[in-house]
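Shift notes (night). Ran Peptidase S8/S53 domain-containing protein while the centrifuge was going.
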Amino acid sequence: MPARVEIVPDAPFTLLAEEQAGLSGLPIAAAGTTLFVADTALVNADDPALAGILASRPDLVLETFDLPEPPPGVDRSRLRSTEGMPRLGRLRFPGAAQSVAPLADLLDEDLAVSSARAAGTLAVLADLAAQGLRVSPDVVGTLPALPPSSSSEQNGSDAYRRPEFTGPTQIARAWQLVDAYRSLNGPMAAVQIGVIDSGFWLDATGIPLGSPPWLRAPVQQWDLAADRPPASGAAGPTPWHGTGTAALAVAPHDDMAGIAGVGGTVATPFLFRCDRSVSQIIRGVQLCTAWGVDVINISISMQVGHFGPFDSFPDDDFNDMFSWARRNGVVIVASAGNDGAELPDLDLRPQTRTPGVITVGGLNGPAATTAMPESNYGVSVDIWAPGRDVRIGPDPTSAKSQKVAGTSYSSPIVAGVAAMLKAIDFRLDVDAVQQILQETGWVGTDGRVTRGVDAAAAVWKVMGGRLPDDGREPNNSPGAAVPLLTDGAGGLVPNTIGSIALSARGDQDWYRFDVAEFSTLDVTLDVATGIGPAFWRLEPEDPNAAVSTLRLGGDDAHQTGHANRVPPGRYRIVVSGGPTVYDLRVALTPRPISADDFEDNDTPGTGTLIQLQPTGPIDPHVIAQGPGTYDLTLDTSSDVDYFRVEDVPRPSGHRKSLVMVGNADSPVEVTVMTYDGSRPLRTGTGGHDAVVLNLEPPKCLVRVRSTTGVRTRYSITFDFMVDVTVLPPIDVKTLPGGP
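Came back to this:
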């Protein structure tokens, strides 16, 4: 008997597949909890069975993943032989059957799928496997949930808490914004930072050194003197200067190497070793531009002298090369220099009189708003960044990360910020980047600092002042609440791939979920508070639902809520605040209602005896209850509770007897009947709000049952009440202290 293949259009995995298809543009399908690309299969291109299958199946198109030509600048001597390397292939079959029938014939077990296209794809795979081909679906993996808030660097140092990254520069917040953007918007533009400098800590073959290495291999590099790779070796009076500037610009994060580069989350390095001569700087700009580098850092300054009957500096060649780079969209960043002089009165290159260069001055500390005394200043300085007590990674002179000073280290900070901006909008050129940095920067306090870099404000401006919408929008009202999805681990989440965003301040995200039976509820909200705040609120769709007290805990970044028991029904959660990204998870643990102590009282004859006001001696052999409140349950859908109420006094003056039912999870009907149950006397319906009925003297029967067939808890009270409408008027003159 063939297996049963069921298309489940409203299943959580179907909704997830549709959502991810919309985000990625790929035809994503699902089978159970597995997502895959429809109409596609992965094979080994050297599989012996493949040739025969392709010959008999013209509808199958094979794409092979052969090695491409390495990019310019890669050291070809380090390439390895491809002997023994597996050759991956991808089969395309856009004409796959759009029916579940072929798949059902090939399976041994029942399977739930998202669509007929999913079933058709799997049917083709199953058929190919039956012909002896090693084949698999092109599975879609997960993206990361929530953006990072710490970086594990050397000696437990956390770059996200270093003052040069958390002070006025707001670099740590910019990192979170960029990672949030990537999580919500998908892959970003690949940015490369070229560093023209000297003293890169590499071995003789160009492999980064250190324990762990300060950069991740392989690293693109070029020795401008030898006109070939590698770029290794010390140089000059500060032998490892390039190691410090390159690491500060682009070192990767979370690798315990002692440094986290400002552009390390978005960019890769291209190292150009030079002897600091103008010819090699021109050559370096030429190669960077020709080979597709996006941002160049030059922490070198050359002072121009004016002497003799000739040009003492090749301004035309120099400026022509920089102009060519500018026309091609390259962003060049240079340090202002450490002469303590005003620019352009001090004639430096490329800091002054050079087209397409952003010149960076040095601040007098990680959180300072004033210039360091050594930093050059003046109208040629476009932006300022920390230049004193800046931490860089280890090098051969220091086994630990170290604090340094100089505008040489201000410049790579801004180069890293520029890389973040171009990662978001690759079209930005040097003029646009310079304008954004100046418009979003803060004003210094000493008359020299014109604008200090605010990385987060700059990133936020390029993002258009809002985070990208996540895949669940629009869901900003109760009526637009979207269902939470199963995460495969017993929880409910908005999205199983990537993070969720409150795109702008005041944004709201509404979600809904159903509780099938009484359950314990746990809610967790993790918030990227470095970007912005978020808060949550739970509300039942039925305003009368009796949810037990919700105990809140945690802190702003990790918020929790717990309710011991929530009744069946539909609930909504709203997350508000922003802008920020967050992860939300709801966990439900079934906690069914059990029978109460008054069972079995589901017939008139077995009803619980209530003696409201006994007038004679109490029979010790009779189990009876007196006036009071009792918390009870209707523990099955057909449960009915009866109460035999005796010794009900007749109304006397202002006093009367009553029954009150309330605090119910779902609506209940309360009926006061003749004692034999033959005739109803009065009926009312209540839920969370109480219904109150008069009891019938001298005895009567009370029945409580669900109006919807849903199990519920409720409270019942048998007592007396004063009827204020029949009380005599009070003469206030007779009261103590009266007039």
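The mean pLDDT is 83. The two ends are 96 Å apart (CA to CA).
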